[in-house]
Write a structure and sequence with these properties.
This protein is α+β, with helices and mostly antiparallel strands. It contains eight helices and 16 strands. Bound molecules: adenosine-5'-triphosphate.
Length: 302
């Protein structure tokens, strides 16, 4: 008997999804599965619901939402034997896309029922985990503006990008040191990724792998407005490396320190968080999360 708990974000994506207990019971027959469905009613409640499900003896916990919900659920499952299932009903669904889990709910359910699981790497930033990506600068500013919008769609990201572009000149003067050596004035963006997709098939780190034991880092120093426009266009076609200012490398850990300017406000899997700290210690934990995947993805364990 499997004890499967579903943690559903009812406002993810377009806020329309079919996930109810009767709907799921049609797929998870009572002879083999005991299911429970829980809905989050406020931001970050999925963390509390997941912790409760662990205490209740769930063997599989399914995050039903986008990258934010997956982050909240999966953060509680790192280094536990509990397997994460994903039903991607968010807007961007970057991690699910990297894992080749389709947005079609029935197909995503079939992957869970197929019981093939693998272990993926997990990123950490101070006391938090990330599974897709984290970073500071322009990408975090876009997400902050996006979070304030009512429509969480691709159009929401486009208008948030315009707003961040307009605000760019008002940025507070800042200085960041990287690994206690390189010092950057007002870096445009420092982006650190575990997965190869941001969502909507856009990628800043197309070569990143969830199972290679490395984080992929993209650093863009302060650049002028024309170059920003050029860079945004290049990003849409995954060709940002054409711009010589864009530096990419792989690492197992990286430390950012704010010498000057306000405290760090990084985005963590699409959620902007004021850290209230001047140091960000970002690292990778290899293979620390069990997740259901499609048959051809990665090294299948189960
Ligand atoms: N009932 C709720 N009301 C408001 N916010 C909620 C509720 N339940 C969860 N949330 C929050 O919604 C945020 C966004 O969720 P999520 O990332 O899953 O969806 P999305 O933004 O549509 O998808 P994606 O991140 O893939 O673009 C999360 O920060 C989560 O904490």
């Amino acid at each position: 008997m499997e004890f499967i708990h579903f943690i559903v974000n009812p406002v993810a994506g377009y806020g329309k999804n079919p996930i109810t207990e009767p709907f799921l019971k049609a797929y998870f027959e009572e002879e083999n599965y005991t299911i429970q469905v829980k809905y989050s009613t406020f931001k970050k409640q999925a963390i509390l619901l997941t912790k409760e499900s662990i205490l209740e003896g769930a063997t599989i916990i399914v995050a039903c939402g986008g990258d934010g919900t997956i982050n909240e659920v999966a953060s509680c499952l790192v280094r536990t034997p509990i397997i994460l299932g994903i039903i991607p009903i968010g807007s961007g669904n970057g991690l699910a896309s990297n894992l080749q889990i389709p947005s079609n709910v029935e197909k995503a359910i079939a992957i869970i029922k197929n019981k093939k699981n693998t272990q993926i790497d997990v990123g950490s930033i101070n006391d938090r985990y990330f599974f897709s990506n984290t970073g500071i600068g322009f990408a975090a500013s876009v997400i902050k503006n996006y979070e304030q919008k009512r429509t969480h769609t691709l159009w929401g990201y486009i208008t948030a990008t315009f707003k961040s572009f307009k605000e760019f000149g008002d940025a507070v003067d800042s200085e960041v040191s990287i690994d206690k050596s390189q010092i950057m004035d007002n870096p445009f963006m420092i982006f650190i990724s575990n997965s190869n997709e941001l969502g909507y098939k856009v990628s800043l780190t197309p070569k990143a792998s969830l199972q290679d034991g490395y984080l992929d880092v993209v650093i863009v120093p302060k650049i002028g407005r024309l170059k920003i426009i050029f860079l945004i266009l290049l990003m849409l076609f995954n060709k940002q490396h054409i711009l010589k200012e864009v530096k990419t490398f792989q690492t197992k850990k990286i430390q950012l320190y704010k010498n000057k300017g306000v405290d760090f406000e990084p985005q963590i899997d699409g959620d902007v968080q004021l850290m209230g700290e001047r140091t960000l210690n970002i690292a990778l934990e290899e293979g620390a999360l069990n997740v259901f995947v499609t048959q051809p993805f990665g090294i299948v364990m189960g």
